[in-house]
Amino acid sequence: MKKPILLLVFTATLLTGCSTMMSVIPKSEAYKGMYAEKPLSILLMPPINKSTAVDAKEYFHSTLSVPLANAGYYVIPAFLSMEILKRESAYDAELFLDTPLKKFGEVFGADVALFTIIHKWDKTYGMVYVDVEYIIKSVKTNEILYARRGQINYNTTVQSNVSGGGLAGALISMAVTVAATAANTAATKYVDVARIANAYTFKDLPVGAYGPYNPEEPNEMAGLKEFTVTLNSQYKTY
Amino acid sequence: MKKIIILTVSVLLLAACSTQQTLYSWGNYENASYNYLKNNDELSTQELIKTYQEIIDKQKGKRGAVPPGIYADYGFILLQANRTEEGKAMLLKEISLYPESKVFIERILKMTEK
Questions:
Q1: Nearest one of A65, A115, A107 to A87, comparing CA atoms
Q2: Reported pTM
C-alpha cells in the first residue's frame, strides 16, 4: 500500500515540474493584446541588467531566440540586431522602456519588442537565485501585451544523471532526456539557468503564427504574473 | 494491479509532457552561440559556422524549415569573416524564407554596398 502512494506523490511532483503554476485568468483576458494584435516578429531588446553578474546582458540575450522561435514567432536575427542596436546607440534598453517604439518597427520590421530585466542573479553554494522580468510591448501602440516576473531558484546540486532510483530512476530517465553538457563550468551554468527560466516563463505564451494553431488556447489559464519556483537541471526546456 | 495502473498512468502523463517535438531543431546552437559570445575567436567562430550549417542541412523540427534568424545571423558571421558573397547569399535566403525580415535585411544589404 505504501508504494503506490509513494508513486502517486512522485508522479504529482513530476507533473508539477512540467506545468507552470496557473492563475485563474484565461489567456484571452491576461494576454488580450497578444490575441488582438497577433504579432509575428519579435525584436529582442538588449537585456537590462540590474544584477551584479556583469556578463549577464549578452549571455542572457543569447538564450532568448530558441524559446520564442519554438513558440512560433519570427525572432529578428539575434546577433545581427544586437550589432545594429549597438551601432545606433540603442544598447541600453532601459532608455526605451517608456518611450515610443515606432522606430524599432520601422528599422527592424518588428511588431513587438521583448524587454527583459535581470533584477537579481545571485550564486551561493548549490543555488542560483534569479529574478527576471519579461515584458512584451507592442511597437505600434506601446502597450504591454505580456508581462511576467519570476523568482527562479535553481538548485545546482541536482545532477543530470539519476542513478539508483530503481523504477523511479527508470521513469525519470525515460521522461527526461538530459543532454550532456560539454563543460560544467560556472559560466555554462549561467546560460543553463537562463534557458530554464525562459522555458518556464514562456510556457504560457500564446503561440505565434508559425506554431500549431490551437482554438482552445485562449481558454487555457495564464500563468501567474509573478511567480516563485525552484527548479533544477532536470527541467525540460523544450 | 493497482500499482501497474498507476505506473501506466504515470508513464503516459510523463510522455505527454516531455516528448513533444519542437518546431525547429537547433543542434548545438545554444552552446555555440554562448562560446562565440564568450571567446569571439577563430575557433568559436568556426564552431558557430558549423552549427549554422548543420541546422540548415539537418533540420529535424516539426515545420521542416530553417528557424527564423539562422540564415541571417549565419550571413552576418560570414560577412564579418570577409566572406562577403556567401554572406549576402545567406541574407537573401532569410528574406525568401521569412518575408517579414525584408525591411531589416535589405537595410543590412545596403550597408554592405557602402
A1: A107
A2: 0.82
